[in-house]
Every structure is written in C-alpha cells, then in structure tokens.
C-alpha cells in the first residue's frame, strides 16, 4: 500500500504546474517522509540483502530490486539536499546557478 502511495505522489509531482508550487513542496515532503518510512519498515531486508548481495543466495531479481532501491534513495537524498542547499545559499544572497557552472 505504501508503494502505491509513493507511486501516486510521484506521478502528481512530475508537473508542479498541476498542483501549484506550495502543494508541490508539501507533497514532495510527504513523499520524502513516506520513502523514509518505507526504508525503515524494510530495514531488516536492507541489512540482510546488503550482507548477501554478492553471494549466490539471491536471485537476480532481488539484486536488481536492491540496486533500484539504492539508486532511488540516493536520488531522493540528492534532490532534498540540493533543494535545501539552494535555498540556504539563496537566503544568503548567493546564486546557485553561478555555483553550478564552476
């Protein structure tokens, strides 16, 4: 059920013009919270799979799911970090686009 909620929120968040920027940000925080809950609820699977990732104990499908979950996690953290960092710099009068060109 949590996965369905994440997928639905993701589809809504693709185009911020549909919801307006305020709701886009609120839903973005919600999807971040749900994603964190998803990882925490499945933490035993994460630990067990990480330990046995390079053994023959798991099928290719499980390994692929692990890689996709890891990439998703990195993307979410990067997006939130960049958004927070950009706002922090902007509040100090620094332009993020100038920093990205360096």
UniProtKB/TrEMBL annotation:
The chain crosses the membrane at residues 26-43, 64-81. Keywords: Membrane, Transmembrane, Transmembrane helix. This is DUF4405 domain-containing protein.
